[in-house]
Amino acid sequence: MNAVLLRIRRQAVRIGALVRFGAEGAPVSLTLLAIMWIAGIAGAIATDDWSKFVDRHFAVGIVPFEHLRLWTPLTAGVLSVGVASFVSATLLIVLVAAPIEHRIGWRRMGIAILSTQVAGSLLGLGAAAVAKLLDEDWGFRLHLGVAVGPNTWIVGALMAASAGMDTLWRRRVRVGLFALLIVLALFGGHLQDVIRLAAAVVGLIAGPAIVGKSPRGTRLAGTQREGRVLVALVVAATTLGPLLAAFSPEAVGPFAVLRDLFRSSPLSVSEVRDICADTPTAAECRRGLLELRLSGVGPTILSLMPSIFLLVLADGLRRGRRFAWAASVTAQVLLVAVSVANFAIRFIESGDDQSIFYGLDSPTFYRTAVPFLTPVAVLLVLVATRKWFDVSAPRGTYRRFWSTVALAAVVLGVVFVAGGLAAGQGFDRPPGVWALVAEYPDRLVPPVYLQWLDPQFLPDSVATTLLYEWVGVLFWVVVTVLTAGTFVKPAFGTETEAAERARELLCASGGSALSWMTTWRGNRYWFAPDGRSYVAFRVIAGVALTTGGPVGPSARHRDSVVGFAEFAASNGWVPCFYSVTADIRTITDGLGWSGIQVAEETVLPLQSLAFTGKKFQDVRTAVNRAKKAGVEAEWINFGTAPLAITDQITAISEEWVADKGMPEMGFTLGGLEEIDDPQVRCLVAVDEHRTVHGITSWMPVYRDGEIVGWTLDFMRRRSEGFRPAMEFLIASAALLLQQEGASFLSLSGAPLAKIDDPNGDSEALAGSTLSTVLERLLDVVGRTLEPVYGFRSLLAFKSKFQPEYEPMYMTFADPGALPSIGNAIGRAYLPDVSFGQSVRLIRTMLDR
């Protein structure tokens, strides 16, 4: 009970600190939030219809301005209507506006809010007036529309604040936000959307004057990668536009005509058949057939699949994949061709006011031509940036891809033809073999692109409807999944001699206490141009995750960091140095990178080590008990040790893994495979019966071509054997290696564990960076995983030897990639975790 109360008290203190932080750091934003809620509650009580009252008296719009309600650009930004609007506005103020204000200060925030709200509203109203010249229908709707809510000044303030951000986030905020706002304006098309876009433009222009310009950092890796990210953002945003129009029945923008890509038909097969029986060449018959093609769940999903496929291609563009670029260009060319063909057939050749293109009853040149503007713009962007997408998949990847796609097409074709013959009476016109074969390619095409073709037959039963509508869906699912799979394959082949070359360099020069881990299997290698340094890494989910820092002359470390980062970026990977020492952290800090502590290395200097005094009582007790029990420490090499010894070691290790119920972790934690190395020494605790009670493995640490120390890696103890075996083995190793002239022992680092900092909570609350948030999150994850892997207990165990503590860091150039980096680290440590093991892990965490 006391523990529960203590936790509640701690959480209350943290919540109170966060509240104080918000009140002190964002007074303007929180004051406007309070005004919005107070006015909303009071208005709901005092008026019969708060929404209509606000729209009439306080919302900004052309009509209110015509009635001289000139205060509306101000009042529209502090009021809101509707539960959804209140909730979304609150979240945006807390998650976006308040952090911005904390960053730039309340005075600048106030200026940014006032200027972007007022000027953005006026500019948006002007754009709405001009829109009527381009599209009379849209302009009329904008003329009658009103806008209210704090979203306008939130967007404007964010864009203004981007002027003071570093290059990376400045570009991402601006490109991502503008892409989203333009899509909302063109597809949604409400006055609120137009004013938001105008506020962003005002913020972009006024931002440097309001918050100043940030110093532009030196160019280091990422320019090409960032270009890929930005192009991917543009492709993804323009892909989501038709979906937005489709699922927004109130969308009125000029591109909202694309909603009929996904529409349903109000007519049944029998009704269409009756219409066509009377007048088979009439427009009503043609329209009915078209609507049947576009109706139903299957056609709707099939119409969505190209957009989903383009989103997958956008992910490939983010990774710099050449195939994604080629496929995106092809898709945009096809979209342009279809739009131009429709324009030619449905507008020019018709010569009258009749058009069924996307359901337009009153087509104009502008409204018929507008759908191909988006793919043309995206195509121009892709062509202009083609040099950025030069990453190829491993050899044979796309040969297997096309073979699998062809096989899927053939199998589905056989199913379609055979099913159609078996259920021939389920169609309005029973088809023959050749009719089914001729129709099958059409089944793979989204139905909206078949609007010019008359269907030979239509399904008239549940079974034939499933066959007719879902064959194409299955085909697109296969293509999309296979395409996504090609993007996650590493863009390199296996390097057969790289590991040996790395081992030779490490032995000839040197590295950190953990550098021997770079020789482990699973690593790939980048070698410096002069061949004297290297970085070991592995690519997981697009992240180039290093195993420690650079290996080679310390004077070349900075060049190695920069060179590896450039190499990673050129391949479409996010560079991340993991488990590096303070000197590498200093280098990356100087390059403008971010970093967080991920472990604590424990080091025992051996020059004057003597296990005397009260602080080493536990260690001396373990050594004395070993003597009494007849247990001795013995050096072995695992590869050449007697089978009786290695079998016991294997059994001890397997038992340990089985007790955990989770797979053995890898990456920076070695297992049996890693100790089977001629240069790795193992110290085992054996008794007079040659029973192995425990084992430790020690990796060499080189400096200037000589071994100066040893690093602890593998630790296992027999569950029912000599209990203080680990204390005994580490103490014995320290004394024996001291006699051999070693300078130090590293007891290695414990992932997700570090020495507690009594000021940690206050420092974390004072910070506002994503890195700080992640560091706190890792701290929580470390506590959560403690019952399973015991990293914190391991660190506490090592404290018995009174070591020196040296922090180990993770450094990265792109804070926005932290989710991907976290995923890569998890998969690096647990690459083979099964679903059942994941369930057990979650259950263990919940039980604690």
TrEMBL record:
Matches recorded under SUPFAM superfamilies: Rhomboid-like
GO cellular component, one term: plasma membrane
Chain ranges passing through the membrane: 21-46, 74-98, 110-134, 140-161, 173-191, 197-215, 227-247, 296-314, 323-345, 365-389, 401-423, 467-488
Every Phosphatidylglycerol lysyltransferase C-terminal domain range: 505-811
Subcellular locations according to the entry: Cell membrane
Coiled coil: none
Keyword annotations of the record: Cell membrane, Membrane, Transmembrane, Transmembrane helix
Recorded topology in the membrane: Multi-pass membrane protein
Gene Ontology MF: a single term: aminoacyltransferase activity
Family annotation (Pfam families): LPG_synthase_C (PF09924)
Primary localisation category: membrane
Listed GO biological process terms: phospholipid homeostasis
Entry-linked PANTHER family: PHOSPHATIDYLGLYCEROL LYSYLTRANSFERASE
Name recorded for this polypeptide: Phosphatidylglycerol lysyltransferase C-terminal domain-containing protein
Organism of this sequence: Rhodococcoides trifolii
